[in-house]
Amino acid sequence: MSINVILVHNNQLMIDGLSSLLKQDLNINIKGIAHDDKELIILSKLGCDYIVITDYNTLGLNGIDIIKTIKNNKPNVRFICISVNNDIRHIRTLLDSGYSGILTKNCSFEELKLAIRKAFSNDIYINHDMVSSVLSDYQLIKHNPSIEIISVLTPKEREITRLFAEGYSRNEIADHLNISIKTVATHRDSIMKKLHIKGIAELTKFALREGICSIDK
Length: 217
Prior knowledge:
alpha/beta, Rossmann fold, Arc Repressor Mutant, subunit A, six-stranded parallel beta sheet, 6 strands
């Protein structure tokens, strides 16, 4: 069994560390290294199937679209995210975006290899540190159904909600996501209709409350 891997991270120390560890496993081949979304797009044209290991921020604001595009062209490509956020809403966003594995940054090398094998077998793997958080939040949601309102938003709508809440204008969001201003406005109207919200101020409060963005952004 030979598993091809592409490492994507904007921190060279992280890249070097992962490369060194993964090279110890003779069943894992590092087929490429990328430092941002643009380099990943170039590498995504490799003829073989592979597993992409990255973190949520490195792919930038277009991460959801990049994953969708790559998976549309190569359905067998899998994505594993190394994340610092174990909030259930964030985990749901990652899964909805197409990630097959979600790990915390303090996971062991053995657990990373397990996630790689699971992704290779077309299974889903969530880091054991996150499981307790998921179960805890599940109980919270069970007793507070209103929390589930966030699930009505698509990954793209959640991303646009975050950007509006962080103070981006329609023009800036359009530039960041490479979509038209009209499309941004359409998404905004859809978000507000789904959430029964009027105005960016209310949207910002919602985003902060639901953990879509943080107050220090």
